Structure formats: structure tokens, C-alpha cells
Design the sequence.
């Protein structure tokens, strides 16, 4: 069957529409989680760190909630850049 896969590069060097929509949806979800972590809605940064310290081993216990908020802000910013790149590809 000649079905275009989501990550298939077309003849003109562009990706397919399904791949672009998948990327935009991924960046929206990724950026949403990062934004919620960055604004610390209902002390979510502390809850996230409690969860990671129980599930992970190593240096996860020594992380401050400010670092988690910074990482969330970086994730939100990177997702905005990714969305802008994908939209400009249209």
C-alpha cells in the first residue's frame, strides 16, 4: 500500500501534514505541562519533586522546586519554538 507515514519526507523536502499535526499536538502537550510546572499551580512543583524522589534514585532528592520550575519554563519556551517552526512550514 502507498500510505504516507507521519514522518515521511516528501519529494519537495517537506514533511507530510499528518507529521506536522502530530508534532504540533506533541508540542502543545509538552508545553502545557511545562507551563503548569513553571507557574507552580497548586504547588505542583513540590508534588512533582515528591513523585520523582520516590520513583527515581540518585540526585532527584536534592533538587529544589525552583529548579523544577525553571525546567518547566524552559520546556514551555522550547515548545513555543517548536510550534512556531511547524506552523511556518505550512
Sequence:
Amino acid at each position: 500500500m502507498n500510505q504516507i507515514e507521519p514522518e515521511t519526507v516528501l519529494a519537495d523536502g517537506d514533511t507530510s501534514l499528518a507529521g506536522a499535526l502530530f508534532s504540533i499536538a506533541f508540542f502543545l502537550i509538552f508545553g502545557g505541562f511545562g507551563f503548569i510546572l513553571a507557574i507552580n499551580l497548586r504547588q505542583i512543583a513540590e508534588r512533582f519533586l515528591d513523585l520523582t524522589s520516590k520513583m527515581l534514585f540518585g540526585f532527584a532528592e536534592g533538587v529544589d522546586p525552583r529548579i523544577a520550575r525553571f525546567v518547566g519554563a524552559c520546556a514551555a519556551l522550547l515548545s513555543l519554538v517548536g510550534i512556531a517552526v511547524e506552523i511556518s512550514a505550512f
In short: The CA atoms of residues 36 and 82 lie 18 Å apart. The mean pLDDT is 83. The first helix runs from residue 17 to 39. The chain has three helices and no strands.
